[in-house]
Specification:
Layout: H1 2-6, H2 13-32, E1 35-38, H3 42-65, H4 96-102, H5 107-117, E2 125-131, H6 135-148, E3 151-157, H7 172-181, E4 191-193, H8 206-218, H9 254-267, E5 272-278, H10 282-285, H11 288-293, E6 297-299, H12 313-319, E7 324-327, H13 330-336, E8 356-359, H14 362-380, H15 383-388
Parallel strand pairs: 2-3, 2-5, 3-4, 5-7
Antiparallel strand pairs: 1-8, 6-7
Helix pairs in contact: 2-14, 3-5, 3-6, 5-6
């Protein structure tokens, strides 16, 4: 019967400490030695980021040649992609941190990922809306389109918000021309608007409006305001159920209608596979209500309640079945893809989770888990393990317990003498 009394009630303090130490060491090892997992479309992302880096360098050199000012306080990376806090062509407020964060060639890789998600391929046509507010993001879009072999139809807004391309002598249209002249991109906007509120520079001075008009003229780009109003053709359906033209009922606002007309006229008989918008232009995405409704990144379907939203180009495309990419909330995008916030220097190509994502080493985590389970089994279950660690068990824990009387009987306090019972009264 001795064997039934010998088994210890539980693991000792030392045993539990050993298992805890093993678990802590294992956790530290998993955190300190993560694995790098290469993300899909790595090669194309790298090409696009290198193209964006080249474009940023070309713009930097052009700005230097023109003798434009550089303020390291607001542009610590020295990129020359950060404009003034205020100028005659500044259309509204802007976030300096967002503008600084946008100066990162690796955003081009993010655009590659989104275009791949929408299955836009080489030779396809996409509609693009850009403005002077985020010139670095415009570069990222152009770079992704170029490396994927996608043909863009571009409409630009000339005005810019704070710290954007708001120098009257070096607007986004001028930057686009410089990139085309240096053969970085072959792209030229098919049309341009003044931009700003209402896409018509509402609130700017007459001097500011004239500066915007001159920028459009010197770059020889048709101004949207000068284009004749035309009726959109009735929607047609191609093979596969793709609509090539939108319904007028969906784009009943004049400026939106005008942009949609230009896009579909330039596309001709080719279907538009996606719409890419940069920034928060009122015509592109609507008022503040519309801006909150559309998600940053890929938008595959219209948001709930779009019928009550102001008309917008993005909304019109979504309602006709054309998906959209909305480049906005730059800081949120940077955090989501592991890109640096407001870098002090222009980041190197290939950095960020969009290329290689750091995550826990699954093999190492599995080994650590197996070791912990084995230790628990040895200590708690295996008899040979218990005997091996018996020296750590206090002697009192292995002493057999005192025998207990059967239930219902009290223990005897004195010996029987054979003549009386324990219930007899004491003898004197």
């Amino acid at each position: 019967m001795r064997g039934m009394y010998w088994k210890p009630e539980g693991a000792s303090q030392v045993q539990r400490a050993v298992v805890a130490a093993l678990a802590i060491v294992g956790l530290i090892a998993v955190e300190v030695f993560p694995s790098e997992e290469q993300q899909p479309h790595y090669a194309e992302k790298m090409l696009a980021a290198r193209r964006a880096q080249e474009a940023l360098e070309v713009i930097h050199e052009a700005s230097e040649r023109r003798g434009l000012s550089l303020r390291l306080k607001t542009d610590p990376s020295g990129s020359r992609m950060i404009g003034e806090v205020l100028s005659p062509i500044t259309s509204g407020s802007g976030s300096l941190v967002s503008k600084q964060t946008s100066v990162n060639p690796n955003f081009a890789a993010v655009l590659v990922e989104w275009l791949k998600e929408l299955r836009v391929k080489s030779g396809d046509v996409v509609a693009v809306g850009v403005s002077g507010s985020f010139p670095a993001m415009n570069v990222a879009v152009y770079s992704a389109l170029h490396e994927l072999g996608i043909e863009p139809i571009i409409i630009s807004s000339t005005a810019a918000s704070q710290w954007g391309a708001n120098d009257p002598n070096f607007t986004w249209l001028d930057m686009e021309a410089v990139l085309r002249k240096n053969e970085v991109f072959p792209y030229k906007s098919v049309a341009a608007s003044l931009g700003g509120v209402g896409d018509d520079a509402i609130g700017l001075t007459q001097r500011g409006r004239r500066m915007l008009e001159r920028a459009i003229e010197r770059n020889q780009i048709p101004a949207l305001a000068e284009m004749d109003e035309k009726e959109l053709p009735e929607p047609t359906v191609q093979a596969g159920g793709e609509s090539t033209t939108p319904s007028l009922a969906l784009v009943d606002e004049g400026r939106v209608r005008e942009r949609m007309r230009v896009y579909y006229e330039k596309a001709g008989d080719r279907s538009i596979k996606a719409y890419v918008n940069v920034g928060g232009g009122t015509v592109s995405v609507g008022t503040k209500v519309g801006k909150r409704k559309f998600n940053p990144g890929v938008n595959s379907r219209p948001p709930k309640g779009i019928e009550d939203m102001p008309p917008s180009v993005l909304g019109a495309f979504l309602e006709t079945g054309v998906p959209g990419i909305h480049v906005t909330r730059i800081i949120d995008l940077a955090e989501a893809y592991g890109l640096e916030i407001a870098p002090r220097a222009v980041p190197e190509v290939g950095t960020g989770d969009v290329f290689q994502k750091r995550q826990a080493n699954r093999w190492l985590a599995g080994i650590v888990l197996a070791l912990i389970l084995m230790a628990l089994f040895v200590i708690a279950r295996a008899p040979w393990g218990t005997r091996m660690l018996r020296t750590t068990i206090p002697p009192e824990s292995i002493m057999p317990p005192a025998p207990r009387a059967p239930s219902g009987f009290a223990p005897r306090s004195e010996k029987r003498d054979g003549n009386g019972s324990t219930t007899d009264p004491p003898r004197h």
